[in-house]
């Protein structure tokens, strides 16, 4: 499995929304500026995220996007699945027709690996990831804060 740029950017953008969860709506322009992701790319990703029900949007002044659920209720696997990435490392996309229409010798190995990766990513929520020590340091740096007391990641970080 190779996680594409689409998957990486979707997770990054959703983490950005998780950081600002208590602050209300966030514009894609703000996410673009903070995370260095092109606005047009974000528009494509958020169309899929909205369709999947992971984000909500409001148009007009004061509009933007926000998570549809608390950050502790959205897993990284859900984000990746929502944008159509899937977590499958088999050559046949799980169809068991990898070798001339038949199951290949290593199908069970790659299938098991894919399930393990899915379980790993499904066990990590947006909030859980943001609570990791080194991640909190990066968030503070991105936000321009230098002391631990200035930002508490909207109650997500102890």
Concise summary:
The protein is mainly alpha-helical and 158 residues long.
Protein model, in words:
This protein is mostly helical and 158 residues long. It folds into 2 domains: 5-86 and 126-155, Arc Repressor Mutant, subunit A (Orthogonal Bundle), CATH 1.10.10; 87-124, no CATH class. Helices cover 47% and strands 5% of the residues. The protein contains 7 helices and 2 strands, in the order αααββαααα. The protein has helices at residues 5-19, 28-35, 39-51, 76-82, 107-122, 126-130, 133-142; strands spanning 55-58, 64-67. It has a two-stranded antiparallel ribbon with strand order 1-2. A hairpin with a 5-residue loop joins β1 (55-58) and β2 (64-67). α1 (5-19) packs across α2 (28-35) and α1 crosses α3 (39-51). The radius of gyration is 18 Å and the shape is elongated. It starts with a helix and ends in a 16-residue tail after the last helix. The model is unreliable at 145-155 (pLDDT under 50).
Tell me the number of strands.
Answer: 2
Q: Quote the distance from N terminus to C terminus.
A: 34 Å
Mean pLDDT: 86
- Helicity, in percent? 40-55%
The CATH homologous superfamily of the largest domain is termed: Winged helix-like DNA-binding domain superfamily/Winged helix DNA-binding domain
As for the CATH topology of the largest domain, it is Arc Repressor Mutant, subunit A
Discrete helix count: 7
What Rg do the Cα atoms give? 18 Å
Q: Structural class of the secondary structure composition?
A: mainly alpha
Task: Give, in spatial order, the strands making up the sheet with the most strands.
Answer: 1-2
What is the CATH top level name of the largest domain?
Answer: Mainly Alpha
Main beta sheet: 2 strands, antiparallel
Strand content: 5-15%
Number of discrete domains: 2
Q: What spatial form do the alpha-carbon principal axes imply?
A: elongated
Elements, N to C (H/E):
HHHEEHHHH
Low-confidence stretches: 145-155
The second-level CATH architecture of the largest domain is Orthogonal Bundle
